[in-house]
Amino acid sequence: MAALGRQVLDGHRLIPLTWSLIARQTTRLGGQKRTTAFLLRKLTTVSSGGGLGESPSVEPQKYAQEPEHRTGLTQCLLEKQRTAVEREKVVSSLLDMGFSDVHVNELLSIQPGTHPQQLLDIISELILLGLNPEPVCVALKKSPQLLKLPVVHMKKRSSYLRKLGLGEGKLKRVLYSCPEIFTMRQRDIESIVGVLKEKCLFTVKQVTEILHRCPCVLREDPGELEYKFQYAYFRMGIKHVDVVKTDFLQYSMTKTKERHVFLERLGRYQTPDKKGQTLVPNPLLKDILRVSEAEFLAKTACSSAEEFGVFKELLAREEEESEGRMADAGSPEEAGP
């Protein structure tokens, strides 16, 4: 009985000694409270008959991640389902607008990463401008970057084009020739329009007609565009109405000068006087610029390809010398000794 009492007392002494030892170890490690708590939990486990390797504190961490993982999967599935529903709505809307199944498949494959609603918003703006399904498909295939434009930008540009008179179907030709009309900077378009109105003195209606018939002018340098008009008006005697009607501004200055000056030197073209009269009947502009070089030489200039070839080389040399003289005249004189 006395021996049993001593064993019990010895057992009670072991617990305080163990706690004291743990406290000293924890103090030497910096007195971190969570370390003490961790060791106390382990000690409690051992005192209860468990092993140190069976600590239940490690287990909940693994299971705590599972609800988050399940939530992520659920959100991903819901997002895919939502995208599929939106795609179906977009397809239905495009079919209602008059697009064929082939058109719809083409549109959806132009930019696969484009959100379905973004695609529908951009196409809707083009349809509202008067375009038919076929031109819309052609424009977007030629210029896929249109699908990346913010819808707000698209709406503003559409509104501006309507003010220029390029709605109601007139935009078709513009988009074929200059699809970047939606991606160009606003100030660049306004600069070209300003030259036509203020420098060349075209009417608002004539500006609309020029942009419709010769959309390539939107890519022109404003200064070069003004010079091209001045050449037509002052050197060739072409009036505003004829500049618009003949699509003069779509032709390059090189081609225009070569054919016009060649006819002048052959005596077949003359600049009209102030009354618009000439001593020789000038050929029509369409017979100068709209025809091939072979037809121009055979029917308008009545000359040979060899003679025209030599003339073009001489004219190019004259242009270079003229530009050189202008550059010399514009440079400051060198100071004398």
Count every beta strand, where a strand is a DSSP E run of 2 or more residues.
0
Global outline? elongated
Largest sheet: none
Task: Please report the distance between the alpha carbons of the first and last residues.
Answer: 130 Å
Explain the overall architecture.
It is a single chain. Residues 1-23, 28-33 and 42-59 have low confidence and may be disordered. The protein has 16 helices and no strands. The termini are far apart. The chain has helices spanning 2-28, 33-47, 59-97, 101-110, 116-128, 133-142, 151-163, 171-177, 186-199, 204-213, 222-235, 240-245, 253-266, 286-289, 293-301, 305-330. It is elongated. The protein is mainly alpha-helical and 337 residues long.
